[in-house]
Amino acid sequence: ADFFKTLEEKSDGGTLRGNYENADERYVVKQDWNAYTPEQHALWRRLYERQAKLVPGRACDVFIEALAGLDASGGIPDLQRASESLYRATKWELVAVPGLIPDLTFFEHLAARRFPVTVWLREPEEFDYIVEPDIFHDFFGHVPLLFNPLFADYLQEYGRGGMKALEHDALKYLARLYWYTVEFGLIQSPEGLRAYGAGILSSGGEIDYCLTSPKPRRVMLDAERTMRTLYKIDSYQETYFVIRDFAHLFSTTEPDFTPLYEILKTEEALPADTLLPGESNVPPNPAAGG
Ligand code: PHE
Ligand code: FE
């Protein structure tokens, strides 16, 4: 993975990197686009250029199309402008945040079709690897998929589901689903396996590894199986979960999870490298990107 902390890890204390002083009660700040330095815009362009070269043949079509439409190759994007174009497409908006935000606040934003985007950019030394999500991960990785109506609805439902999971003391299960779909999901296409997860799409190394390496497992998405599975935060994933299409993602997660959470609480979690008996391992796509 190109960053470590997520829904689960961030609450364990430790100091966050952003400046939270001017955040409002929803943790929203002003982006202050004019404060980015020429060096920061240049670093963005280098990140963008490296990653844009890798997406053809590796990212799903909707990502590639929406990324081109966002026109963010020239420098750190103005979130307000991108938000307006996203709103016209799927009625989602972008809000600027100082960094990671509390779970409930995060879910409330998603449930209201607002995607929080971190305002700060990594340092040059962090080109390949970053501990907390920055604007490059949040914008390049997450925003393009929000132009897809089915994915956009999925993420709103995820936000609602998050609020419910908090009530059921089931956040760790739902966080695994986020990790294995929104961050590290793979999708089938007529041309072969593609990536749609933001953690993959914003990573210079994992974007190829996840498709071509024979090492990790690739298992079809299933709500119970996925929410039972532990994940790696400090290395490439040992298992990826594959969807047939975005309708598959939506239908898998649509049922009421309340009874499932009760089952999950009685089950032992599965190590990240599990392949269950009888489970088929979707083959890699060695020609990806070629
Ligand atoms: N259906 C889930 C529930 O009942 C909510 C959910 C929807 C979770 C979509 C994730 C994604 O809790
Ligand atoms: Fe992310």
Word description of this protein:
Strands 4-3-6-5 form a 4-stranded mixed sheet. Strands 1-2 form a two-stranded parallel sheet. The protein is α/β, with parallel strands linked by helices. It is 42% helix and 8% strand. Helix 6 (149-167) runs antiparallel to helix 7. The model is unreliable at 1-11 (pLDDT under 50). The protein has helices at 38-54, 61-70, 79-90, 103-111, 135-142, 149-167, 171-183, 198-201, 206-212, 223-228, 246-253, 258-266; strands spanning 93-97, 114-118, 186-187, 194-195, 217-220, 239-243. The structure holds phenylalanine (PHE) and fe (iii) ion (FE). The site of fe (iii) ion has 7 residues, from helix 5 and helix 8.
In short:
The chain has about 290 residues and is α/β, with parallel strands linked by helices.
CATH topology: Phenylalanine Hydroxylase
Please give the largest β-sheet: 4 strands, mixed
Bulk shape: globular
Oligomer: single chain
Tell me the structural class.
alpha/beta
SSE pattern, N- to C-terminal: HHHEHEHHHEEHHEHEHH
Instruction: Give the tally of structural domains.
Output: 1
- Roughly what is the average pLDDT, rounded to an integer? 94
Parts with pLDDT < 50 across at least 5 consecutive residues: 1-11
Q: Report the total helices.
A: 12
Gyration radius, in Å = 18 Å
